[in-house]
Amino acid sequence: MNDKITQLTDALPALLLGFGMNLLAAVLTLIVGFTLANWLGRMVTQAMQRAGKIDPLFHPIAGKIVRVGIIVFTLIAVLNRFGVATTSVVAMLGAAGLAIGLALQGTLSNVASGVMILVFRPFKIGDAVRIEGAVYVIHGIGFFMCKAHLPDGPKSFVP
C-alpha cells in the first residue's frame, strides 16, 4: 500500500506539470484566436466599406462571418489540445448545419433571392414594379424581403 502511495506522489508533479502546460497552451490559444478573430473581422469590414461597388448591407456581414469562422476554428483547436476527438466535433457541426439548412429551407430561399436582388440590382429603391397585377413602389430591400407600398398608401412586405 505504501509503495503505491509513493509511486502516486512521485508521478503527481509530472502529471500536474503536463496538465498545467496544456491549460496554459489552451488559454494562450484562446487569447490569440479571439484577438485574431476580432482584428480580422474589423479588417474585412473596413475593406468592404472601402470597396465602392459593394452594397453597404454586406459590409458588417462579411466581417462577422470571418470572426465566427476563426472563433469556431480556435475552439476546435483548444478541444484538440485536451485530447477531444475533433473529427466527431466537425462531423457534428456539419450535421447540425445540414439539419438547420433543411429546417430553414424556405427562409434560406428568400435569403438567396434577397442576395441576388442586392447583387444584380434588377430594381432599386424608388422603382415601381408590377407584382401579380398590382404596381408597387419599392422603399426597402433586405435579405429576407422587400418593403413596398401601393401608390395609394398601404404597405406590404414581398418575400
Characterise the protein shown here.
This protein is an alpha+beta fold. The protein is built from four helices and four strands; from the N terminus they run ααααββββ. The chain has helices at residues 2-50, 59-81, 86-103, 105-120; strands at residues 128-131, 134-141, 146-149, 155-158. A hairpin with a 2-residue loop joins strand 1 and strand 2. The longest helix has 49 residues, at 2-50. The mean pLDDT is 83.
Q: What is the first-to-last residue Cα distance?
A: 75 Å
Major beta sheet summary = 4 strands, antiparallel
The main sheet orders its strands as 1-2-3-4
Shape: elongated
Strand content: 5-15%
The sequence of SSEs as H and E is HHHHEEEE
Q: How many β-strand stretches?
A: 4
Q: Structural class of the secondary structure composition? A: alpha+beta
Radius of gyration: 26 Å
Task: Chart the SSEs and their pairings.
Blueprint: H1 2-50, H2 59-81, H3 86-103, H4 105-120, E1 128-131, E2 134-141, E3 146-149, E4 155-158
Antiparallel strand pairs: 1-2, 2-3, 3-4
Helix pairs in contact: 1-2
Summary keywords:
159 residues; alpha+beta; four-stranded antiparallel sheet; 4 strands; 67% helix
Summarize the structure.
By secondary structure, this protein is α+β, with helices and mostly antiparallel strands.
